[in-house]
Amino acid sequence: MEDEIIEDNEVTRCICENQDYPGPPIVEDGAEDLSEDAGSLFIQCDQCSVWQHGGCVGIMDDTMTPENYYCEQCRPDFHELKENSLG
Ligand SMILES: [Zn+2]
Ligand SMILES: [Zn+2]
C-alpha cells in the first residue's frame, strides 16, 4: 500500500495577489524606522492554511501575530474589524 499522499497545502495567497511581499505602502513622511523584518513575516490562516504577508494584513511584527489568524476569505469580518479600528 503506497496510499499515503502527503498533501502540500502550503499555498501563498495574499490579498495583494503577489507571491512575494511587494513592500509596505509608501509613506509620505519618508519614515526611516520601518522594520526590515516586515517583508519576511508570513502568517497562516487557521482555517484554509494559506499564507499571507503580515505586512499586507496589518501585522508587521511577530508580537502582533494573533493566536488564531484567518484570511480575508474565511473571515471577512475579521478583516473589516481591523480596518475600522484604524480610524
Ligand atoms: Zn501580500
Ligand atoms: Zn483562510
What does this entry look like structurally?
With 87 residues, the chain is mostly loops. The radius of gyration is 15 Å and the shape is elongated. The mean pLDDT is 81. The longest helix is centred in the C-terminal third of the chain and has 10 residues, at 76-85. The chain has a domain at 36-78: Zinc/RING finger domain, C3HC4 (zinc finger) (Herpes Virus-1), CATH 3.30.40.10. Helices cover 11% and strands 10% of the residues. The protein is built from 1 helix and 3 strands. A 3-stranded mixed β-sheet has the order 1-3-2, with no helix packed on it. Bound molecules: zinc ion (2 copies). One zinc ion binds next to loops.
Summing up helix and strand content along with how strands pair, one would put the structural category as little secondary structure
Mean pLDDT: 81
Low-confidence stretches are: none
Name the CATH homologous superfamily of the domain at 36-78.
Zinc/RING finger domain, C3HC4 (zinc finger)
CATH architecture grouping of the domain at 36-78: 2-Layer Sandwich
- Spatial strand order of the main sheet: 1-3-2
Q: From N to C, what is the helix and strand string?
A: EEEH
Report the CATH topology name of the domain at 36-78. Answer: Herpes Virus-1
Distance between the termini: 57 Å
What count of helical segments does DSSP give?
A: 1
> What percentage of the residues does DSSP assign to strands (E)?
5-15%
**Cα-atom radius of gyration:** 15 Å
CATH top level of the domain at 36-78 is Alpha Beta
Instruction: Give the assembly state of these chains.
Output: single chain
Which percent range fits the helix content? 10-25%
